[in-house]
Design goal:
About 60% of the residues lie in helices and about 0% in strands. The chain is built from ten helices and no strands.
C-alpha cells in the first residue's frame, strides 16, 4: 500500500501541489528563471545500493537552470530511492511466509478459509503449531468473532487486519482459551521485527 502511494506521488501534479502548499505556508514566491545556489546533500552510504532512477522518461528536461526544475528532480529521486529501499527491505523470502500467515488469519476471521489452504500455506509452521488443530480452530474463529460482535456496541463488519483479531481475543479471554493454536500463531506473527532503525532512516532521504 505504501509503495503504491509512493508511485502515485511520483507525478508532476503531486509535486506541483506540494510545491504550492509549501509556498503558501512560507509566503515565498519562487522565480523559476533565476538560479539559486544550493548545497547538494550527499546520499547516505547506506543508500549506495539504491540507484535513484526510473525507466520512465523524466517529466522535465534537465536544463541545469531553475530552482523549481531542480526541486522536481530531487523529489523524483527521493521517491525512487525510497521505493527501491523499501522493496528491498520488505520483499524478502523470509517475510513471504508471514504474509501467507496474515492472509490465512484474515480469511479465517471472515469465514473464508479451507483446510487444504491452511495446510498448504502454513506448512512451514508445522514445527510450531499443530496444523490439524489449527485448521479446526481457524474454522471456528469467525464464530467467536460473531459472538464478540453481539457483546459490543459497535460490531466489526469485516476483519481486514490481524491486529483486530488480537484485540478480540484480548477482549474475550474465553475465546482465547478455546483457540490455543490460533493464539500461538498470533504470538509468532507479532514477534516478527518488521521495523528497524535502518528501514526508518530510509525516509530521511526525502528530507
Amino acid at each position: 500500500m505504501l509503495y503504491n502511494r509512493l508511485q502515485q506521488l511520483r507525478s508532476e501534479e503531486e509535486f506541483e501541489r506540494l510545491h504550492n502548499k509549501v509556498d503558501s505556508m512560507s509566503g515565498i514566491v519562487h522565480d523559476e528563471d533565476r538560479t539559486v545556489p544550493r548545497r547538494k546533500r550527499a546520499l547516505p552510504r547506506r543508500m549506495a545500493d539504491f540507484v535513484a532512477h526510473d525507466s520512465r522518461e523524466a517529466p522535465m528536461e534537465d536544463t541545469g537552470t531553475g530552482e523549481k526544475e531542480q526541486l522536481l528532480r530531487d523529489f523524483f529521486a527521493a521517491i525512487d530511492a525510497t521505493s527501491q529501499a523499501m522493496m528491498s527491505r520488505f520483499d524478502q523470502e523470509d517475510l513471504k511466509v508471514f504474509r501467507e500467515m496474515d492472509d490465512c488469519l484474515v480469511k479465517a476471521a471472515n469465514g473464508n478459509i479451507s483446510g487444504a489452504d491452511v495446510k498448504e500455506r502454513l506448512a512451514s509452521f508445522s514445527h510450531v503449531v499443530n496444523l490439524d488443530k489449527l485448521t479446526e480452530e481457524l474454522r471456528e474463529l469467525s464464530i467467536h468473532i460473531k459472538i464478540y460482535n453481539k457483546e459490543v456496541p459497535k460490531p466489526i463488519m469485516k476483519v481486514t487486519k490481524v491486529s483486530t483479531i488480537c484485540d478480540i481475543l484480548i477482549g474475550k479471554p474465553s475465546s482465547k482459551e478455546c483457540l490455543p493454536e490460533v493464539d500461538r500463531l498470533l504470538k509468532l506473527y507479532n514477534s516478527v521485527p518488521l521495523v528497524s532503525a535502518t528501514a526508518e532512516r530510509t525516509f530521511s532521504v526525502m528530507r
